[in-house]
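for ur thesis appendix - Alcohol dehydrogenase-like C-terminal domain-containing protein. copy paste whatever u need, i formatted it the way the template wanted (i think)
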Amino acid sequence: MSAIRKLGRFVEFSVFGDPVTVDWSIISDRKELDLMGSHLGPYCYPLVINGIQNGDYPTEGVVTHQLPLQDFEEGFELMKKGDKSLKIVLVP
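the 3d part is after this line
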């Protein structure tokens, strides 16, 4: 926040695993920043899926677990723990 100029714009583009605190006085009082949240739109998903399928977007290091679909409960448990899982793929 300190690097953003007065009357600048801050765009939050991510998801946090832990609670995050923000000094709201920087946003509203001192710098009068525009604050925006952003997320991928549905139009992005086909492009990314095709890129992963054809190898344009490698997933090494991103996908940490691949499980058969019937083991979905194990996948959810891994996700809840969160310490050793980044992305879990359930394979039909």
